[in-house]
Amino acid sequence: MTAGAPSAISLTAVSMKAKSCEVTGSSGMTFTPAANPDSAWTATPSDTGTAHVDVSCRDLGNHKVSVTDTVRVFVMPSVTPDMAGTVPVGAGDSVDVTYDSTDTRLVDVACKNCGSYGSVTRVGPNVVRFHAQVAVSDGAIRAVCFIVHGLDGHYTQQQCVGVAVTAAQLPPHSIPWAIRQSEVVALHTMPVATYEYSGRSIHPDFMRVKSPWSNNACWLVFTPYPGSNGNLENPSLAKSGDCEHWKPAPGVRAPLYDKPPVGYNSDPDLVFDSTGGCLGVVFRQVIAENDIVIAKSCDGTTWSDSPRLLFSAPDHSAVSPTVAAGPDGVSRIWYVDAGPKGCASLSNVVKMRVARPSSSSSLDSLAFGDEVATDLVQAGYVIWHIKVRYLPSKNMYLAMYAAFPSVSGATCSTNDLFVATSADGLHWQSFPVPIINKLDRRFNFVSLYRSSFSYNPNTDLLRTIASGLEDDWGEYGVTYNFTALMNALNLSTTASGLQLVPSKKLVRKADAVPRTVKMEDQPRRRPHH
């Protein structure tokens, strides 16, 4: 028997007085007679363990005849799916339903009311997958059902999760799917050699340098970062003919500059002076404050003996500097002010400085004025590392940035990757969904990080190199059809909540226990006096 569940008791009374049988027993047992108490009763136990069942009847001489037996009462089995209600699934897509079960002999699964519309298969010890085959127009709800068999071998219980089979998730019905469909070259790993031989790097920025000494080659600046080791986080250069296959820049010191005696280097950015034909590397030195510095080369081999200071800011108040010349030919620099909390700040502000009127395009004289706060925000997120370029053919600035959820206890180690657009670099239009989700099913990302891009107006392709963390840091390439990507993002500003949620075909479940990742830009410990 199973506690809480009624069980039938059958009696066989021979030569007994009609309707004379009674059934009693242990406390916690309720007995209910059928229409003929000499043939059937129902027992409902409330307690588990061993219970007594006493049956007494009277013979034709009205003498009492008794029989006593014992029964085992088991705990009521249960099954708890990880979702409830009705789950929408697009035709051709699947949804996994995970469940927990206790005190069961067996859990069967079935697809209720499915026919040719869907099927259920077991894909793990406690995971079943519903595959939606055809969109449904009859309005009926299909269901994934769990049939639990109790330990007594007789009791069964069924619990179902409704599944609404909808039209296939295709653009523009699912914004995340439309973004994925805009990939011309799918997201993939991109090996980059590092000076300390780990091949683990972060903070990429790349561009094609159109200068005779460069022979139209692509240049990449990055920082090695194996195991989040800030001692190795020093700007390094690589070169490529196709912006895809990278080799260390020939004749260039690796790393370009060593770390400062106290502190570290980070966040390099490339800038090109088309008039002088010189390539610059802007990066951040974190010592007692943030020093934003620039180094240059006019032949790709000979670099400044030491970088020149552009400006300084308090600690963690000038994170991820990025420089771009606007339609007026004037250079601007953007960066993230994270304040003294750095990586743990939840109130970051993207700021901008404009090159001084007296400053020329020469990298030797480039200088910036006072900072102003932009209105670039990502709803529900904290912006962390950013890259900005001006796209002349689109008359817009494009920003690509890593951002992490704005929740208590969050840090800069759990980012998704977003983009935003602007006409003036000060006022921005952001979008509700990332272009790369850290839960992208194709990789086991913990976080995305500072990323870079280039746009080709002749092909309408947006080539992107993103840095991300799986078991360690690395670079990942992806190329988008820019128009298709922007169409999906623009649609996201008016889409329903359902259209913004990626299906399980696109993203995996988050880790039950978030990984702890060591990062730079932690709040400094103040000495005790």
Walk me through what this model shows:
With 529 residues, the protein is mainly β. Helices cover 4% and strands 45% of the residues. It has helices spanning 175-181, 482-492, 497-500; strands spanning 7-10, 22-25, 29-33, 40-45, 49-58, 64-73, 78-81, 86-90, 94-102, 106-112, 118-124, 127-132, 142-149, 156-166, 183-189, 201-208, 218-224, 236-240, 247-248, 264-273, 278-286, 290-297, 308-313, 319-325, 331-337, 349-354, 372-373, 381-391, 396-405, 416-422, 428-430, 447-456, 461-469, 473-481. Strands 7-9-12-11 form a four-stranded antiparallel β-sheet, with no helix packed on it. β24 (319-325) and β25 (331-337) form a beta hairpin. α1 (175-181) packs antiparallel against α2. The longest helix is centred in the C-terminal third of the chain and has 11 residues, at 482-492. The protein is elongated and about 125 Å long.
Task: Note the main sheet.
Answer: 4 strands, antiparallel
* Distance between the first and last residues' Cα: 72 Å
Q: What is the general shape?
A: elongated
Give the number of DSSP strands. Answer: 34
Rounded mean pLDDT is: 90
Specify the CATH homologous superfamily of the largest domain.
Glycosyl hydrolase domain, family 43
Write out key terms for the chains shown:
mainly beta, Tachylectin-2, Chain A, 3 domains, single chain, 529 residues, four-stranded antiparallel beta sheet, Immunoglobulin-like, four-stranded mixed beta sheet, 3 helices
